[in-house]
Specification:
139 residues
């Protein structure tokens, strides 16, 4: 396994003394790029205001830089929005309809208002000579 013998000895000693814990290695220091309390308030305000209700996390990041002169990553905005449960589609994506929505048939009350069509490929017994069936009809 190519593990140093001394390392195995340290692991055994730590296990015998019951001090072997992975979490003991983690630093308790705050990261240098952690948000300050004032920046946390700005993030929460930007997410919840009506002015930025349709803004994406990337737009919010740029707006924060322009307005306050502070760069806050779009990932930070996304994670906060996700934690609050408001990370749905925003901007132009919020106004789009679903890709798989059903067509609206609500105002069809007369003949010739709804057309249907289909093109089908039909194999024949003759090699390399398929037939194409095209159907256009009124519903």
């Amino acid at each position: 396994m190519q593990i140093n013998e001394r390392r195995i000895q340290r692991w055994r000693i730590a296990a015998e003394n019951e001090v072997y814990d992975r979490k003991s290695r983690e630093s308790t220091q705050k990261p240098y790029n952690a948000l300050t309390p004032a920046e946390n308030v700005i993030v929460d305000q930007m997410i919840t205001t009506k002015e930025h209700a349709d803004s994406s996390c990337r737009v919010l990041s740029i707006e924060t830089l322009n307005k306050y002169g502070i760069y806050i990553s779009h990932v930070t905005f996304y994670n906060r929005m996700k934690a609050k449960g408001i990370n749905g589609p925003r901007g132009i994506y919020a106004r789009r309809k679903s890709k798989h929505s059903k067509p609206d048939f609500g105002k069809i009350d007369k003949p010739n208002q709804l057309w249907s069509w289909d093109i089908s490929y039909i194999k024949t017994t003759t090699k390399y000579q398929p037939l194409y069936l095209c159907f256009i009809g009124l519903v």
